[in-house]
Design brief:
This protein is mostly helical and 144 residues long. The chain has helices at residues 17-40, 45-52, 56-64, 71-81, 103-117, 121-138. It comes from Teichococcus globiformis.
């Protein structure tokens, strides 16, 4: 488009495809991190939605990166999920691409979620001791 003196739109006023694509990738990354943290805490989408004062559908759209999250809403989500706002951006590359969750990371998330649901402290301690022993054995260290 041509620049006009009457306040017309110039080409530089329009977002380019690269920046739009990076923004969408960032929205998807933040949504995936929200979902990751929600699952770590064992919350349903409905529970999260209720806690942040939106509908289930809106929470779903946030997690999928279909709807942008305002700064204020992201702050509220961070408070509810007990993480700093910066946590949602961890793993986001400058190109706007996120690093995919590997199988190991998924297992760690599932392990953390399941561990948090164990109400018996003795069972939690036994599981923790077993994990320490297996880790020490894997690294060739003596068990503490």
């Amino acid at each position: 488009m041509a620049d006009t003196e009457a306040g017309g739109v110039t080409k530089s006023d329009e977002p380019d495809d690269t920046s739009t694509q990076r923004a969408r990738q960032a929205d998807r990354h933040v949504g995936a991190r929200i979902r990751e943290r929600r699952l770590m805490l064992g919350l349903s989408q409905q529970q999260l939605a209720s806690m942040i004062g939106v509908t289930y559908q809106q929470a779903h759209k946030y997690e999928r990166g279909l709807n942008r999250i305002s700064a204020g809403r992201l702050f509220e989500i961070a408070v509810v999920l007990a993480v700093p706002v910066s946590w949602f951006f961890e793993g986001l590359q400058e190109s706007g691409e996120s690093q995919p969750l590997g199988m190991r990371q998924r297992m760690c998330l599932e392990l953390a979620r399941n561990f948090a649901q164990i109400t018996n402290e003795k069972h939690q301690e036994a599981l923790s001791q077993m994990a320490r022993a297996l880790a020490a054995q894997s690294q060739g260290r003596p068990v503490d």
